[in-house]
């Protein structure tokens, strides 16, 4: 169950990245799983500070924001994200349905969803918003992802290390991109299987180890080892 044939199925949100900002882990997990199932790239944060850091590094196409966050207001976060990135699609999650709040959010957002929500409706709303804000025939221009002397071009899907080109397969690129986007933490093998290969309940698979070894062989030829292993846990960047 790899990436073959995915490009034609993804339609208007091909390659679209959604930033989910929700401080309830159970809700954030449900949203992330559903969006990834529908072929979105997903990043999650539980705080305003975490969301701003992720958005600055990766420039998402859409943000799904809880209105009530532990360190701030989701609407204020939305305003700041929109100021930084005017073309960002904004969808708000709120447990309250007061008309004044909804109108206030929609004054600068694109849509809102009240809790409790139907997960299929969330996916449909985000897809609809992206259809309006991100035409399918326009390739998004994103800043490169960087980690140390690594640079990943999010438009051409090319990789350079210390200024030298690194030839990666699409799967190797997806694996490296996910590790870079999660810099500073060890990513469990099960999460890599779900995100890169869409495998579920396949912890016994050796595909992660195999592709990690491929990446190491190519990257380590141009510099010091960059991928670290935490035995019994997962992988991260050194």
From TrEMBL:
Keyword Phosphoprotein in annotation: yes
Residue ranges annotated for the Response regulatory domain, each copy included: 17-130
Pfam families in the record: Response_reg, Trans_reg_C
Domain OmpR/PhoB-type: 142-238
Residue ranges for the DNA-binding region feature of this UniProt entry: 142-238
Superkingdom of origin: Bacteria
InterPro entries xref list: CheY-like_superfamily, OmpR/PhoB-type_DNA-bd, Sig_transdc_resp-reg_receiver, WalR-like, WH-like_DNA-bd_sf
Name the UniProt record assigns to this protein: Response regulator transcription factor
């Amino acid at each position: 169950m790899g990436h073959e044939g995915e490009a034609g199925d993804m339609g208007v949100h091909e390659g679209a990245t959604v930033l989910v900002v929700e401080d309830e882990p159970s809700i954030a997990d449900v949203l992330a799983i559903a969006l990834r199932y529908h072929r979105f790239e997903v990043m999650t944060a539980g705080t305003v500070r975490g969301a701003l850091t992720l958005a600055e590094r990766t420039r998402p196409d859409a943000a799904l924001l809880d209105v009530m966050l532990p360190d701030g207001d989701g609407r204020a976060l939305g305003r700041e994200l929109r100021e930084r990135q005017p073309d960002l699609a904004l969808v708000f999650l709120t447990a309250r349905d007061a008309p004044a709040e909804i109108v206030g959010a929609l004054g600068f957002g694109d849509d809102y969803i009240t809790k409790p929500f139907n997960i299929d409706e969330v996916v449909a709303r985000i897809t609809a918003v992206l259809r309006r804000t991100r035409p399918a025939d326009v390739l998004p221009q994103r800043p490169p992802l960087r980690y140390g002397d690594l640079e990943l071009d999010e438009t051409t899907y090319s990789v350079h290390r210390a200024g030298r080109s690194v030839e990666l397969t699409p799967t190797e690129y997806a694996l490296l991109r996910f590790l870079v986007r999660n810099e500073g933490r060890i990513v469990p093998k099960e999460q890599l299987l779900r995100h890169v290969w869409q495998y579920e309940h396949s912890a016994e698979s050796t595909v992660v180890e195999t592709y990690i070894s491929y990446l190491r062989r190519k990257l380590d030829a141009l510099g010091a080892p960059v991928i670290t292993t935490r035995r019994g846990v997962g992988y991260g960047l050194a």
